[in-house]
Amino acid sequence: MHSALFTPLTMGSLALPNRIVMAPLTRCRADADHVPTDLMVEYYSQRASSGMIVCEATMAIEGNSAFGAREPGIYSDAQVAGWKKVTDAVHAKGGRIVLQIWHGGRACHSLLNNGRQPVAPSPLRITNDETHTPQGKKPYEIPRELRDDELPGIVAGFRHAAQNAKAAGFDGVEVHGANGYLLDEFLRDGSNQRSGPYGGPIENRARLMLDVVDAVNSIWGPSRVGIRISPLNSYNDMKDSDPIGITGYLASQLNERKIAYLHLMRGDFFGVQHGDLVTVCRKAFTGKLIGNMGYTPAEADRSISDGLIDAVAFGHHYVSNPDLVERVKSGVALVEPDSRTFYTNDAHGYTDYPTMS
Fold first, then answer.
1. Residue 148 in 3-state DSSP?
2. Where are the domains of the chain?
């Protein structure tokens, strides 16, 4: 059943035994110092049968980049050691695991960052939601506009995170360029209204994201680097006047860099923005394309067979189906997750979902 999903795939130097990828899923189970815990070791090792695990968004830089109280980081020695336990456990079960590195940008809050104001390309706050803080839900804050001379430091922070990811035993790195966090904020004109070398035309707005990719490539080599993008997604109050155009430009620039894969969120959580991004990416990017958002196993298998994508990333179903690969292969129905436990801090709704056996 779904034979295309179970054919091996080579993405750069990454060899996948099947084409089912675990999408990055923020779960808030690190400790108060953003160090991965033994609970995270168990969670990820339970899901080692996936073609590849992409770990949850992990802070590349210490300071004002924390989005939540308990998401992991990769900037300290203790965090590297915590992640090493995770990668060792996944590898012991024959799995492959890459780390997604990010900066939360304007989606952060000073109450989660020792009073530090969040930063962004422009001083525009998120207005369509509130965020969770130690004092309950609060409105997002107006971020401080980053100066041009600060941006090389952001790039250096991502480079250091890539070095730490290598020390932690990961098989590669995925740059988080999606969902309204810092790199995506620079890319899209709804959140980037600055002038100068990082604002205005798409060539400037994409500069920071591409500089980060180049920095990560310098550590890992492009054959172990991927990036996730979401040009249509309006999550975190995001929009762009030409999502198809920015997708084509970005895909062509990434193609020149010969990275292992492009991880494309093809739609919009809220259905506000529409467009066929898959065709645009397939035309401009000759590396491997991972599709994400709303795929069923049947559609994923057809899309791979038709050459539209090379692999598919499943998100929320990986919360509640640690043996998702085996379930899909056997034709067993997938368990729906309990969303109330997505961002809690204990084992319930995290490591206690049963396997078929």
1. helix
2. 27-262+272-288
Calpha distance 259→227 (Å, rounded): 8
DSSP assignment letter at 17 = S
Q: Is 181 a catalytic residue?
A: yes
Q: What mean pLDDT, rounded, does the chain reach? A: 96
275: DSSP letter: -
With residues binned 3-state (H G I as helix, E B as strand, rest as coil), the percentages for the chain, rounded to 5, are 35, 15, 50
CA separation for the pair 304, 218 (Å, rounded): 31
Of the residues 43, 75, 181, 350, which is catalytic?
A: 181
Find the mean pLDDT for residues 31-58: 98
Q: Determine the average pLDDT of the residues in 102-125.
A: 95
Q: How far apart are CA 267 and CA 66, in angstroms?
A: 26
Tokens of 244: 């198809």
Quickly tell me which residue has 């999903």 as its tokens.
5
Between the CA of residue 40 and those of 34, 36, 44, 47, 74, what are the distances in Å?
Answer: 12, 6, 6, 11, 14
Listed in sequence order, the residues at least 6 apart from 242 whose beta carbon sits closer than 8 Å to its beta carbon are 189, 202
Amino acid at position 29, single letter:
R
Helix (H) or strand (E) run with residue 133 in it: strand 130-133
27-262+272-288 belongs to CATH 1.10.760.10: no
The string of pLDDT tens digits covering residues 197-253 is 999 999 999 999 999 999 999 999 999 999 999 999 999 999 999 999 999 999 999
